[in-house]
Structures are given as structure tokens and as C-alpha cells.
Amino acid sequence: MSRLCVIGSGYVGLVTGACLADLGHGVRCVDIDEAKVALLKEGRVPFYEPGLEEVLRRNQRAHRLDFTVSYPEGMAEAEFIFVAVNTPAGMAGEADMTYIRQVAEGIAGCLRKDAIIVNKSTVPIGTGDLVAQIIHRHNDKVPFGVVSNPEFLREGRAVADFMEPDRIVLGATDKAAAQEVATLYSSFKCPIIITDLRTAEMIKYASNAFLATRISFMNEIAAICEKVGADVKEVARSMGLDRRIGSSYLEAGLGYGGSCFPKDVQALAHMAAIHGCHPQLLRAVMDINQDQKRIVVQRLRQVFGSLEGRVVGLLGLSFKPDTDDLRSAPSLEIIHLLQSEGARVKAYDPAAMEAARRILSGVELCPDAYATARDSDALVVVTEWNEFKQLDRKYIWQLMRHPVVVDGRNIYEAQEMVELGFIYFGVGRGHVTAPASLVEMGIDTSREQ
Ligand SMILES: NC(=O)c1ccc[n+]([C@@H]2O[C@H](COP(=O)([O-])OP(=O)(O)OC[C@H]3O[C@@H](n4cnc5c(N)ncnc54)[C@H](O)[C@@H]3O)[C@@H](O)[C@H]2O)c1
After folding, report:
1. Which one of 6, 7, 9, 12 would you pick to mutate in the ligand 1 pocket, going by the greatest count of ligand atoms within 8 A of its CB?
2. Distance separating alpha carbons of residues 397 and 380, to the nearest angstrom
3. What confidence category does residue 449 fall into, taking pLDDT thresholds of 50, 70 and 90?
4. Residue 13 CA, closest ligand 1 atom number
């Protein structure tokens, strides 16, 4: 059993701390957010992450996991200090290093001899060296190691992803330090890659940028499918069966969001530009992603002309299913676009209502999907939660003022929706032709009040 400290108790830090405790290590987590630490001490997870609370409580009961706001207390005798603080987008698209710098300064005075700092945050290439420099500036007496150990977990499946990773990446100048970190993961069956610091840092950015590229690529194919009368869903399914391609991250839709892909692609493009490269592909990926969110307004304008006074119901607010995370969620921009066109927005999300209440204004938050559909002129599927796939669509049709559905995640079968009487728009479903205007649709104007 090793003594570990994890700095930052957000999605990554808390999962890291709880799971490493579950592997039998003694873990103290440090966070500057007093309210969060108070909740965690009571065994409550301050965000929605399936299965995490169980792991947290199990390890608190076993006295392997504790929380504090104090660096000296959290780091007392710690052999490994994991860093998992946020690295949000800065003003110019760069990764904002404020919190990483604060951590480096905060831990400098509390390090025990030969402690190893393990960075899990997604950080610009060269950050491992920067952290070492900052610590040296404050403390040149105690020898320590720095290892980059990027995290690849996905929100919504974070515990399983942490416990059964595809690979562990460890980057260090001192390979012995990386080997020591590897011992913490010795029960895992996956490959452990030991490399240099900068390569490890780049592996994380390259991985996220590649996944985002797949999404934007499929969105470009979807746009072409629509024009030429093909079905992108079938295209993606068949492409995915090719083992050289694989099936993940091929879903066309309203684009990627969340706390990672948008800021990481942007930060990589920024780094490239700063170093004199011309990141054309990354820029196209971002450009396509930006356009995807406008599809909603385009389709609704196509139907209604002006959106002034129209009521639009959104199904889903979180950036993807099984999380309540609204950071850079496509829903936020879609709401903004709809409101700026004069539409009234109603919304429902199975997990993100509390988070939505904190940050959204002028949106009617509904208790369920049916209440969202009731008297709406249009319904937009923004997040592909399973519960939306099971909805009684005949009933939805009856509830709506106009049966217009923009299925931004292609969760419904286009033909079936048309047969049910919906004016249905998917993304890249060119095999089913949507009418071009309200009149052409023969919309029952008696429903107009
Ligand atoms: N969320 C993900 O799915 C995911 C996946 C892989 C990697 N990452 C990366 O991991 C890092 C953390 O992401 P997250 O989603 O967990 O962020 P988060 O915002 O959920 O959590 C960060 C935590 O760090 C705390 N913190 C900030 N400054 C601190 C300081 N000086 N001392 C102690 N605590 C401090 C905050 O209070 C917060 O609780 C980011 O770099 C992110 O890009 C995130």
C-alpha cells in the first residue's frame, strides 16, 4: 500500500482518488473548494457519475480515503502526488495554466524527499518541465520526480474506464520514477507505455483531437448525405464494421461538446500556431463543429420562417448522456441561438436540471420530456439519453402544437417518424426528404392559436 495525495476533486481527481483507494492505497484528496470538500467528507459526490458514490463510501468506511482543503495535511508523507486540477480554455484558445501553477507553488513546500508528482490534468506540452522549474524555485533542497500520466476516462463511465483502461501512459525524464508509478497500476491488464514527458503530454492531446476529428469528419459526410439522398447512419454503421476504421465516434449530430474536446482541440491548434505550424485540419474540425449547432436554427427557419414567439422544446442539456456536465455543452449555444431568434425555449434533462437551474436564464425547465413537448412548436433532441429513445411518440405528436422534430442525435428512425406524422429532420438522413416549408408540409393551421 502506498500513500497518495490527489489534488483536485473534480471528475478526474475524485475518480482517481476513489479508484486508487479501491486498489488498496491510502489516499488523501485536496481541493480548494470548501463546500465540495464538506460534501465529500459526508460521502456525497457533488456531480452525477454512475457508481462513483459507492466506491467513495466503501473506501471512506475502510479509512483509505479522506478529504481536506489543506495541502500540508493532504500531502503529509505522501509518496505520490497526483494533480487533477482543471485546465480550462484561456482567452486566446490556449490552456489556462493558472490552477496548475497554483498547485506547483502549493505543493513545493510540502514535498517529502523523493516524492513523485504525477500529472493527470490535460496540459500543454512542456508543462511537466514547467512544474519542476516552479517547484525548484520554491524548494531546491528536496529531490522529487515528475511523471505525466494523462487520463482518458469518459464522464458517465468514469469508474469503469479508470479501472479497465485501454492503456496507461507514463512519461518522465527519469524512467525510474515512471516505473514507480507503474507499480500503482500493477493489477491492471492493459499495456503500460513508458515514454518521455513531452510525448506523454502530446499523446493526450493527439487522442482527443483525433476523436474530435472523427466526429467532425462524419458531420461533413452527413452534410453531403443530406444533399445526395444518402443515410449517414447506415454509412457510419457500415464504415465502422471495417476493422481498420472501428465503430466509435462516428455519430453525426449536433457536434462535440464537454469539458475536454472543445478546449483540447483549441489548445492544440494554439500550441501548433505558437510553434509556427499551420493547424489546418484542427481548424476545420473546430469550424465544422461550430456549424453543427446552427443546424437547429436552419431547420426551424426552414419550417417556420421566423422563430419569433415560437416555442422550442429541448430534450437533453448535458453534453452527452449519463452526465450532468454542462461545460461547453452544445445545448448552451443552441439555447442562445434560439433565444436570439426570438424563440421561447423549454427544456428537460434526466440529470442536469440542477446544474441547468444554476446557469440558464429565460429557459422553462420542465419535469419530463412530455411536459417539454406539450404545446411546443418544435422539439429538438440535443442529447441522446436512452430515456428519449423510449418515448411514446404518438403521445408526443398529440401534445405538440406543431409536430416538428429536429433529431440532433439521430436517435429515431426517420421513416417511422414520418409515418407517425412528424415533420422530421435528422442529421445527414438524406434518404427521407423533409418538406421545404410550412405550406408544403400542409401544417394544420387550426393548431395555431
Ligand atoms: N472531465 C473529463 O472527462 C476529463 C477526462 C480526462 C482528462 N480531463 C482533464 O483533467 C483535468 C481535470 O478535469 P475535471 O473535469 O476533473 O475538472 P473539474 O473542474 O471537475 O475539477 C477540478 C477540481 O480542481 C479543483 N482545484 C482547482 N484549483 C485547485 C488548486 N489550486 N488546489 C486544489 N484544487 C484545485 C477545483 O476546485 C475542482 O474541484 C483537466 O485538465 C481535464 O482536461 C478531464
Report:
1. 12
2. 13
3. very low
4. 16
